[in-house]
Write a structure and sequence with these properties.
Largest sheet: 6 strands, mixed
Number of helices: 18
CATH superfamily of the largest domain: ABC transporter type 1, transmembrane domain
Strand content: 5-15%
Helix content: 55-70%
CATH architecture of the largest domain: Up-down Bundle
Bound molecules: adenosine-5'-diphosphate
Distance between the termini: 61 Å
């Protein structure tokens, strides 16, 4: 999409397809013009007949036929261009939102919660669809019709137009009252929908915990009170909306009656002819519909706008930072794989997590971070992957500031194997192949062999085509973990981040996974988060984190000799 000045991406989408929109506008004008001229022709014919004159029926019917044909053609083309405009602009807007999701910085999801993001992707986008697909088109039709018919009414009698205009402030005032109430209720509706999605999502992802702790009533209660609040809000909104429809109808009758009566007076006074009255009456209904409908459709647009602003807020969320450096050659020859220089980090300024943290990880070495819960081990991993940037200090990846790296290229250097394995609801093959979309069947199978999962897969009825279910629910924890290790094999990244991958499996499986991990670690730089010290005794360096800084570091033996935090942690651990 061409860059336009508007910061509002929705408007940019509208502008992008404005030729179609203008075409529609032009066609509505042709249609309204054909209606006016057709009715005027009938009115003139009536006047001629009443005056005792003769009309040329051939010319009369041919002209009427041509005007009708022009009207039909314009109406057909108008609906085609309106549909095209709607479909194209809706698709573009959705595409931009989807693309933005991939670029958004990680913090956005922390701050907003996934429920709000899902609602924006579903319901709020549906409101944008409604505005682009119907509402804008109605507004455009009505605006053009009002202008075209107003010119006709002014030509018939300026006083008539004046009477209609007198009623307009009343229409505007009523619609404004409605809009204010409806938009604030719409905002509340969206917030409450977010809440319900959030609770439902929590229930679904934690269904096992929820059932095992018998917490159904607690969550059920939360869900039903949120639903009650939503229903209450919706009742109010529907009531106002229905009232608005009633008001719209009443407001439609008023000009119809007043203008018809006044037009009759004008005929009696001889100011307009009988034919003029007939034409006026025929046009009046259409004029009033558009005249009264316009402010109410604008009200609806403002209601949609509330939701579009929520999508715009997502679209204007901060993008993940990225530099431009992409190494031309493998960077494995560099002596230092990772270094932190005086890195400080916080999620919220009140609670610092890392304080002036410095360490160096030589390429090809194995290091481990240990420490109590909440000391910042996972945060270090998030920074290493570039999900968060240091608030102060520098993170160097292969001797270059991470900020100059193209984020995608930097992530190509890193494979993450975590204790919380996430599998997509797809086949085993697809779940392994995500690591390298260009990989062939042989490479995928070799990766699975290395991860010690190939034989298991071959014994499944659908083998590599087996569906793993949502989040891999159809597989055991150990099987999921080995698939994630196969993914890391396939990625073949020089740096391996391991977040205690064996912490959630039984002893037998732990052994198999441990062996696979050892094979995976060969020749790579390994960074391990350890919750159990028994798994990291072989590390070249162990960093002990305390209060956001490194309190101790060294090999297992040197740390044991220091008789400090590590020794006491080791003493507390059961083997
Ligand atoms: P560890 O992995 O050592 O258990 P973490 O790195 O997960 O510790 O967390 C370090 C601290 O940062 C903890 O106090 C935790 O509550 C806090 N924290 C972690 N993630 C977030 C977040 N997204 N927003 C705010 N605080 C967070």
């Amino acid at each position: 999409m061409k860059k336009t000045k508007s910061r509002n991406i929705f408007l940019n989408c509208v502008l992008h397809y404005c030729p179609l929109f203008f075409l529609e506008t032009g066609l509505v004008w042709v249609l309204a013009g054909a209606i006016v001229e057709g009715n005027r022709l009938i009115g003139t014919a009536v006047d001629t007949l009443f005056a005792g004159g003769a009309i040329e029926y051939g010319v009369f019917f041919t002209t009427l036929l041509l005007l009708t044909a022009a009207g039909f053609a314009a109406a057909f083309l108008k609906s085609v261009s309106a549909s095209l405009f709607g479909i194209k602009s809706q698709t573009l807007y959705k595409k931009l939102v989807a693309e933005k999701l991939y670029r958004l910085e990680f913090r956005y999801f922390d701050d907003n919660g996934s429920a709000a993001v899902i609602n924006k992707m579903n319901s709020d986008i549906a409101e944008a669809d409604a505005l682009l697909g119907e509402n804008l088109s109605f507004i455009c039709d009505e605006a053009v019709e009002v202008l075209t018919y107003a010119v006709f009414v002014a030509q018939t009698s300026r006083k008539l137009l004046f009477i209609m205009c007198l009623l307009y402030p009343l229409v505007l005032w009523m619609s404004e009252r409605v809009v204010r109430k409806l938009t604030s209720l719409k905002k509340v509706f969206r917030q409450k929908s977010d809440k319900i999605t959030e609770i439902a999502q929590d229930c679904m992802s934690g269904i096992l915990v929820l059932r095992s702790f018998g917490a159904e009533q607690y969550f059920g209660g939360k869900l039903s009170s949120a639903a009650d609040e939503l229903v209450e809000n919706e009742e109010k909104r529907t009531r106002i909306s229905n009232n608005a429809i009633l008001v719209r109808r009443i407001l439609g009758w008023l000009p119809n009656i007043l203008c018809a009566v006044y037009a009759y007076v004008l005929v009696c006074r001889g100011d307009i002819s009988l034919g003029g009255l007939l034409t006026f009456i025929l046009i009046l209904g259409r004029f009033v519909d558009a005249f009264v409908g316009l402010p109410f459709d604008l009200v609806e647009a403002r209601e949609h706008w509330v939701c579009i602003r929520r999508v715009e807020e997502l679209l204007h969320g901060k993008d993940e930072e990225s530099g431009s450096y992409r190494p031309q050659m493998p960077v494995h020859n560099s002596k230092t794989a990772i270094a932190f220089e005086q890195v400080s980090f916080h999620y919220t300024p009140q609670t610092p997590v890392l304080k002036n943290l410095s360490f160096t990880i030589p390429a090809g070495s194995t290091v481990a971070f240990v420490g109590g819960s909440g000391e910042g081990k996972s945060t270090i991993f998030r920074i290493l992957c570039g999900f968060y940037r240091p608030c102060e200090g520098v993170y160097l990846l292969y001797d270059r500031d991470f900020n100059v790296w193209d984020t995608e290229a930097a992530r190509e250097q890193i494979a993450l194997v975590s204790q919380n394995v996430f599998l997509f609801p797809d086949t085993i093959r697809a779940n392994v192949a995500y690591a390298d979309t260009g990989a062939g069947e042989e490479e995928i199978i070799q990766a699975c062999r290395n991860a010690g999962i190939h034989d298991f897969i071959m014994n499944l009825p659908d083998q590599y085509d087996t569906q793993v279910g949502e989040r891999g629910i159809l597989l055991s924890g150990g099987e999921r973990q080995r698939i994630s290790i196969a993914r890391a094999f396939l990625k073949n990244a020089p740096i391996l981040l391991m977040d205690e991958p064996t912490s959630a499996v039984d002893l037998e499986t732990e052994k198999i996974i441990q062996e696979a991990m050892e094979r995976l670690a060969e020749g790579r730089t390994c960074v391990i988060i350890a919750h159990r010290l028994s798994t990291v005794q072989h590390a070249d360096t162990i960093f002990v984190l305390k209060d956001g800084a490194i309190a101790e570091s060294g090999t297992h033996e040197t740390l044991m000799r220091q008789n400090g935090i590590y020794t006491s942690m080791y003493g507390r651990e059961e083997f």
